[in-house]
Design goal:
Blueprint lengths: L8 E7 L5 H14 L4 E6 L6 E6 L5 E7 L18 E4 L8 H11 L3 E5 L13 H7 L2 E5 L1 E2 L6 E2 L1 E6 L2 E2 L13 E6 L20
Parallel strand pairs: 1-6, 1-7, 2-4, 2-5, 5-6
Antiparallel strand pairs: 3-4, 8-9, 10-11, 10-12
This protein binds zinc ion.
The site of zinc ion has 8 residues, from loops.
């Protein structure tokens, strides 16, 4: 917390998928740990699994995390989950309801350093709530870029692919457990399919 005011603050780490958001989150947590600060980490129950888990990156670093209900008022449980925590980190923030904004502000008001990580755009290239609200109310915002898998320029967008083809604009924003894949792409190479949406064999609409 700030020494004079005793208040905390909110840091947002955002950007496209594959831009190193979780890696940056873990770097900050490691530094807090070295300083002897108490850290609590949370992630959403996107696939309905609760309990203890880890957040991790592709290079093998990981951190213990608590899975919380990400829908409706579910995120509010984070506020009082660990009253001793000096640093609270929340990964995959884009999967949380708008209640996460209230959670982050309540913690910061109490003197907690809050670090939130999540992608800021849907596969359509639109703002992905609640990241826009978090980025607007946070004290610190870092927007990371990946590298476009098509042209090699800096990438800010999430390209959803279904069987190798760009997803349709009418597809749901969050798909859990589906056979989709993602690439990071730049504005120019990002594609959202429009027009008639054909049914795919063996795939629910
Ligand atoms: Zn590109």
């Amino acid at each position: 917390m700030h020494a004079i005011t005793q208040s905390g603050w909110v840091e947002v780490i955002s950007g496209s998928m594959f831009s190193g958001k979780t890696e940056e989150l873990l770097r900050r947590l490691r530094r807090a740990e070295i300083a002897g600060q108490s850290v609590a980490v949370y992630k959403p129950a996107v696939d309905d699994r609760y309990g203890e888990t880890t957040i991790g990156t592709h290079n093998g670093r990981q951190w213990d995390a608590t899975v919380v209900d990400n829908e409706g008022d579910g995120p509010l449980e984070i506020v009082d989950a660990d009253p001793a925590a000096e640093v609270v980190a929340i990964d995959e923030a884009n999967f949380f309801s708008d209640a996460l904004v209230e959670v982050c502000n309540a913690l910061a008001d109490r003197g907690v350093r809050v670090i939130v990580s999540g992608t800021d755009q849907t596969f359509r290239g639109e703002p992905f709530a609640p990241l826009p609200q978090l980025m607007a109310t946070a004290e610190y915002v870092d927007k990371l870029r990946a590298i476009c898998t098509v042209c090699g320029e800096p990438a800010t967008r999430n390209q959803r692919l279904i069987e190798g083809e760009p997803a349709h604009v009418d597809d749901p924003t969050i798909l859990v457990g589906a056979a989709e894949s993602y690439e990071s792409r730049c504005r120019d190479c990002h594609v959202v399919r429009t027009g008639e949406r054909e049914e795919r064999p063996g795939r629910r609409a």
